[in-house]
Amino acid sequence: MEDWGRVMTPSLLRRAHKNAVFDRRVRVLADQLGALVPPKSRLVDVGTGDGQIALQIAQRAPGVEIEGIDIMLRPKTHIPVTEFDGDTIPFGDKSVDVVTFVDVLHHTDDPQNLIKEASRVARKAILVKDHLSENAFDHMTLRLMDWVGNAPHGVVLPYNYASKASWMSWFEAARLEVERFETSIPLYPFPFNMVFGRKLHFVARLTPMA
Predict the structure, then answer these.
(1) What CATH topology corresponds to 2-208?
(2) How far apart are CA 89 and CA 86, in angstroms?
(3) CA 86, CA 44: separation in Å to the nearest integer?
(4) Pairing, β 201-208 against β 42-46
(5) Could you tell me the residue ranges of all domains in the chain?
(6) Helix (H) or strand (E) run with residue 122 in it
């Protein structure tokens, strides 16, 4: 797949991905996640990339102060971004209101560690957009999507997808209550949604237990 991608991704696939997926994805995720952010929050977006989605999330909730952290700094970003080591979120205990992960945790070797870190630093909520993989076909589909969308940017691709049961166990271990778990996310137009939509995506709003 990687050899074929070096030929195809820079041209046809990248154009098709942007036209059919990327712009719509930004809008849909900003709408869904922005509706879950309390007004006047201090928000940290983990693995923010260029910060485009994070900025639009913040614009949907009044008075939000936003910054991002990432293991790799891009030359141009839409929000202030600080480099971090990928393991420890560089903020004090309960020092921010909201922590967001937008298609980030499946790029890590240990998603549970960052979920626990988010629970440590967040006062009000943790928002997660990620994937569900319940079988081999789910995994294969997600792997293709991940490669097309991220390989051109040099993003690490461990393809570390998880089942709903695994996600729930990680949330519980981090002492997070699942306030909302939504799998109906209109990221793709017809007919792409029949293959790449299904129940492969979720948005969760989690609140730290007292």
Answers:
(1) Rossmann fold (3.40.50)
(2) 8
(3) 14
(4) unpaired
(5) 2-208
(6) strand 122-131
